[in-house]
């Protein structure tokens, strides 16, 4: 009898409907992670907001609608809510995640404690990049399981608490790949080029809009091979790996943003570590 009772208990614990592939892949509800919220099966795409920002919604397996919500690193474990237009708020639980520390030595002290002129430039560039992250196009992402943008091992993970020359700065907002200068960078999903820049910290940078607030940023490029407004197919060439901006050597820094929140890109390539 025991195994049968156990099986029954397991079945009762499952949700009323089977979780689809996207939910299993992306639902990592921790600070810096992603929450997948079930919206049921209304005929129209529900309009969802989290912390005032529009949220990506897709239809899973051609049936239920789900919201794919980016959770800021600053959120404390506990209950969070999304607003659904014309419906009740929906809650989701955020668990805890420990992020490691990293100490980095930078030779150029200006990149650790910038002077007034550089601070002005950094502020201006930050505003420009924030505006890009806040864009919300109506297109559907071509794929939510992303391809790796470069061939190369993962190096620095998302969320590391970083100390530059002993001073704590912003946590690591993306995922690094170790790759040689000149390694081609490919679009992990189809996207439109919505911003190109040569920034103080990020160096030569490309923003790709995959749709509905799902946006990639590629930094420290040696060469940008796309133009503003270009439509890049999945796997299309974006540029080449380099070490421009604040970088200790050639690598690709890749950010993924959802609802203007930078989340762990490892989730989207199936390499998330809890
Ligand atoms: Zn990085």
Task: Write the SSE topology.
Elements: H1 2-13, H2 21-26, E1 34-38, E2 48-50, E3 53-54, E4 56-60, E5 64-70, E6 78-84, E7 90-94, E8 101-104, H3 116-133, E9 161-164, E10 167-168, E11 175-178, E12 184-186, E13 191-199, E14 203-211, E15 214-221, E16 223-224, E17 231-232, E18 237-240, E19 251-258, E20 261-263
Parallel strand pairs: 8-9
Antiparallel strand pairs: 1-5, 2-3, 2-6, 4-5, 6-7, 9-10, 11-19, 12-18, 13-14, 13-17, 14-15, 15-19, 16-18, 19-20
The protein binds zinc ion.
Zinc ion binds at residues 156, 172, 174, 176, 253.
Notable characteristics:
mainly beta, Immunoglobulin-like, Glucose Permease (Domain IIA), 2 domains, 7-stranded antiparallel β-sheet, binds zinc ion, M23ase_b-sheet_dom
How would you sum up this structure, described in words?
This is Murein DD-endopeptidase MepM and murein hydrolase activator NlpD, contain LysM domain. Keywords: Hydrolase, Signal. It is a single chain. Helices cover 13% and strands 35% of the residues. It has 274 residues and is mainly beta. It has two domains: 74 residues, Peptidoglycan hydrolase domains (Immunoglobulin-like), CATH 2.60.40; 169 residues, Glucose Permease (Domain IIA), CATH 2.70.70. Strands 11, 13, 14, 15, 17, 19 and 20 form a seven-stranded antiparallel sheet that branches. Strands 3-2-6-7 form a four-stranded antiparallel sheet, with no helix packed on it. Strand 8, helix 3 and strand 9 form a beta-alpha-beta unit. The structure holds zinc ion. Zinc ion binds next to loops.
